[in-house]
């Protein structure tokens, strides 16, 4: 194993028989590992039931806050940081599941706390490492059909279940809940006496209390101390010889005389007490709803029910089902991520439990909003796009020979890009992968495979004829499409629930029976689409990213554990599939790209505190290239995406050379008062003309002749002419382009072009000065000088 920055390269080379010997030892130690885990869980329970639960969770939250304060990216977290999270969510799950045997201790003593923390750390270390390795070895031995790729995903699914929290950025949580909860305002008012808008506001208050609350309380405590000390000082000057008890009495008098008792209680309650977690103090959520969302101590009967994985993190955690805890008749929230990750689905279950008749209406509204949201964010990314919703067409469905009416959830057209949208509003399985991995796989099939198949069905229809008709739900024709109009077609299954870690690997899920085929499929959640809509400000750059993302789909090398790592890879390495290929260098090593989303994490952390923060998530790009892509985007000209992608495909040195060449050309043309074309050769076949208002108007015929002559020099089959139109002040105002070939050139024109080509070659040779025999020929042919113009 080797690590290069954010990249980890794996390659194994076991000596003969060593691997089998190691596997046998792991099989033999498996029963002992299971016993160790169960004993550790029993130890945790014995400690927890003897301690005051609210103080355990308060201290756990405090240590977690210290570990994560100032942390802008999850990739910065170390082992202690991760354990601090489990000290909150796992311990709250234990408290919700185990009844106390008697009155708890008054305080959490340091010795008890250290043993408890060490035990939780040991539990998750054993579970994440020892148990998984030995269990895999056991399955390898006992299962004749053992498949290591299937096993890898089984392992990953359990790791995500036990350790991954935070489905979306905190910055997006309010918008997320507004999108999803708002349609159910009437039933929330009926059942709980609170509107959806008000409920989202109250959830935001909890988020604020558990993120900024302790900082604000600390600042206010300092202010309180300053104000009270300022009021106390005159009294101390008059009483120089006072005891500590007398000072406390004087301070109490100052606070009482100034009416600061409530202020004192409020500040100390938030900074030192439980007020930041007390939901009736932080929010105005009705008690009836609080009760539906909270466990009392020992109320959950499933987590520690007899059977496999009793009390293990591999079961469904109580905190996943109800995020709040009720202690001493007060309702508390200590774990923000469990609340935000699960709140929508928990609310759905509680509403339907109280009003079963509303199930159909909930599902109906959920489907409607799920089909609306993808277009909301795609239109933000691609303003002005053409949209068709609920598209019907006649094609073969399943094994049916006759054509039947089929539906695509939507189509989005932007320039020469077509997105085939298939939306799934269903919930990702609530079952633990350890208990029922087949159900877990079935969920992936429902959310990825089925919509991918539906998208491919429309793609087959689109390619079945030169033009095809599309219809609305009443089977009235609404449009006609031709596959020839689209340079890039993306099948895009979009899910309401987030399963970013597995969606990012959809092309590698064949071992699970989830074979989405060879056509690129971009499985993405609405949460990730919302992120992209805040990152990309230029539609053409977003489309170029989509093109690279689909190259990533086709790559056997690219392995990431997160959709947003693809974004990070794109920002850092542009055509990142080529970067991965060069990094692998023909070996069979497995590459895993980790932490590439860290800059994305940091941006949204900053945006949480300052919403107006502009996106810094841009590739390094010279200003002229930025301006060209901007003007192309604003032009609305058909084919602009193709030109932008051609330029954006260029690597850093190519980009700089092109930009530098434009700058030098503009400066030289002012002196020479004639066009000075800028041409590139090799993989980038491009000729640029810079027309300038006041003294250099466009000469289209000259541009075509020069470009074709350049093609004769280099032996190119085609070439892109890029024409840049500048004002007299050197400001780019328009971009035009054309693709030229030699196929339609007449014999007489060909002779004229050859003459131009010879003149062009001679001029370049003269300009180059002294040339070495083995140097690249300055004419641009790509040959060495000795095998090119030196012979002429």
Q: Which SSEs are present, and which pair or pack?
A:
Elements (H helix, E strand, L loop, with lengths): L1 E3 L2 E4 L7 H31 L4 H16 L10 H19 L12 H33 L5 H16 L6 H12 L3 H8 L3 H16 L1 H26 L5 H14 L3 H11 L7 H4 L4 H6 L1 E3 L21 H4 L2 E4 L2 E3 L3 H19 L4 H23 L4 E11 L6 E12 L2 E8 L12 H26 L5 E4 L5 E5 L6 E8 L4 H4 L20 E2 H10 L3 H16 L8 H11 L2 H9 L5 E4 L4 H12 L13 H13 L4 H9 L3 H21 L5 E3 L5 E7 L7 H15 L3 E9 L5 E10 L5 H22 L24
Helix pairs in contact: 1-4, 2-3, 3-4, 4-5, 6-8, 9-10, 9-11, 16-19, 20-25, 24-25, 27-28
CATH class of the largest domain: Alpha Beta
Q: Could you list the spans in which at least 5 consecutive residues all have pLDDT below 50?
A: none
- How many helical elements? 28
**CATH topology value of the largest domain:** Restriction Endonuclease
Main sheet properties: 5 strands, mixed
How far apart the termini lie comes to 54 Å
Question: How are the strands of the largest sheet arranged?
Answer: 6-7-8-11-12
CATH architecture of the largest domain: 3-Layer(aba) Sandwich
When the domains are counted, the total is: 4
Radius of gyration: 33 Å
* Structural classification: alpha/beta
Tell me, rounded to a whole number, the average pLDDT: 90
Specify the helix fraction band: 40-55%
Work out the strand percent: 5-15%
Shape: globular
Please provide the count of β strands. Answer: 17
């Amino acid at each position: 194993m080797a690590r290069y920055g954010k990249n980890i390269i794996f390659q194994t080379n076991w000596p003969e028989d060593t691997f089998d010997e190691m596997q046998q030892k792991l099989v033999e130690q498996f029963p002992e590992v299971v016993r160790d885990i169960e004993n550790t869980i029993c130890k945790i329970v014995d400690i927890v039931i003897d301690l005051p639960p609210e103080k355990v969770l308060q201290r756990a939250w405090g240590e977690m806050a210290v570990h994560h304060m100032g942390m802008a990216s999850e990739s910065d977290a170390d082992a202690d940081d991760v354990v601090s999270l489990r000290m909150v969510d796992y311990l709250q799950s234990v408290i919700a599941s185990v009844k106390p045997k008697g009155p708890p201790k008054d305080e959490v003593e340091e010795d008890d706390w250290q043993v408890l923390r060490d035990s939780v750390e040991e539990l998750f270390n054993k579970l994440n490492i020892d148990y998984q390795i030995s269990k895999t070895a056991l399955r390898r031995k006992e299962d004749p059909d053992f498949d290591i790729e299937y096993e890898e995903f089984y392992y990953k699914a359990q790791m995500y279940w036990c350790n991954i929290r935070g489905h979306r950025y905190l910055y997006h949580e309010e918008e997320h809940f507004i999108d999803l909860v708002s349609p159910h305002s009437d039933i929330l008012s009926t059942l709980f006496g609170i509107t959806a808008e008000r409920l989202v506001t109250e959830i935001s208050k909890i988020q604020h209390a558990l993120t900024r609350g302790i900082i604000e309380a600390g600042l206010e405590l300092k202010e309180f101390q300053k104000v009270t000390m300022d009021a106390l000082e005159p009294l101390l000057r008059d009483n120089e010889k006072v005891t500590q008890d007398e000072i406390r009495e004087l301070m109490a008098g100052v606070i009482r005389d100034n009416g600061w008792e409530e202020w004192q209680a409020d500040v100390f309650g938030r900074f030192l007490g439980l007020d930041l977690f007390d939901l009736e103090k932080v929010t105005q959520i009705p008690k009836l709803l609080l009760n539906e969302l909270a466990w009392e101590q020992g109320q959950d009967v499933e987590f520690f029910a007899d059977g496999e994985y009793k009390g293990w993190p591999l079961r469904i955690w109580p905190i996943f089902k109800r995020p709040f805890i009720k202690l001493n008749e007060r309702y508390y929230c200590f774990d923000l991520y469990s609340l935000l990750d699960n709140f929508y689905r928990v609310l759905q279950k509680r509403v339907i439990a109280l009003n079963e008749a509303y199930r159909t209406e909930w599902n109906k509204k959920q489907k409607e909003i799920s089909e609306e949201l993808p277009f909301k964010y795609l239109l933000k990314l691609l303003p002005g796009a053409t949209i068709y919703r609920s598209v019907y067409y006649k094609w073969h469905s399943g094994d049916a020979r006759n054509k039947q009416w089929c539906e695509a959830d939507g189509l989005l057209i932007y320039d020469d890009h077509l997105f085939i949208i298939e939306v799934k509003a269903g919930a990702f399985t609530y079952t633990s992968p350890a208990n029922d991995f087949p159900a877990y796989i079935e969920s992936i099939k429902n959310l990825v495979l089925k919509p991918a198949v539906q998208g491919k069905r429309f793609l087959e229809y689109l390619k079945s004829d030169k033009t095809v008709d599309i219809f609305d739900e009443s089977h009235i024709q609404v449009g006609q499409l031709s596959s020839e109009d689209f340079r890039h077609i993306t099948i895009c299954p979009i899910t309401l629930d987030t399963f970013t870690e597995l969606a990012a690997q959809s092309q590698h899920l064949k071992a699970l029976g989830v074979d989405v085929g060879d056509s690129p499929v971009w499985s993405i959640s609405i949460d990730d689409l919302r992120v992209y809509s805040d990152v990309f400000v230029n539609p053409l750059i977003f489309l170029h990213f989509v093109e690279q993302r689909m190259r990533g789909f086709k790559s056997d090398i690219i392995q990431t554990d997160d959709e947003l790592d693809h974004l990070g890879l794109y920002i850092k390495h542009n055509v990142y599939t080529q970067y991965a290929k060069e990094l692998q260098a023909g070996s069979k090593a497995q590459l895993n790209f980790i932490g590439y989303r860290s800059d994305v994490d940091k941006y949204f952390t900053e945006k949480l505190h300052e919403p107006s923060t502009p996106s810094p998530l841009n590739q390094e790009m010279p200003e002229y290239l930025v301006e060209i892509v901007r003007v192309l985007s604003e032009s609305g000209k058909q084919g602009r995406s193709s030109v932008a992608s051609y330029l954006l495909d260029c690597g850093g040195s190519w980009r700089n050379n092109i930009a530098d060449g434009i700058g030098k050309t503009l400066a030289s043309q002012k002196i020479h008062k004639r066009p000075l074309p800028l041409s590139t050769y090799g993989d980038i076949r491009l000729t640029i003309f810079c027309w300038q208002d006041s003294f250099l108007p466009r000469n289209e015929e000259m541009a075509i002749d020069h470009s074709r002559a350049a093609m004769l020099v280099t032996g190119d089959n085609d070439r892109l002419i890029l024409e840049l139109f500048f004002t007299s002040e050197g400001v780019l105002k328009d971009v035009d382009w054309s693709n030229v070939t030699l196929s339609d050139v007449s014999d007489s024109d060909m002779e004229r072009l050859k003459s131009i080509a010879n003149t062009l070659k001679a001029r370049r040779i003269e300009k180059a000065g002294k040339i070495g025999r083995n140097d690249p020929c300055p004419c641009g042919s790509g040959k060495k000088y000795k095998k090119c113009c030196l012979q002429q």
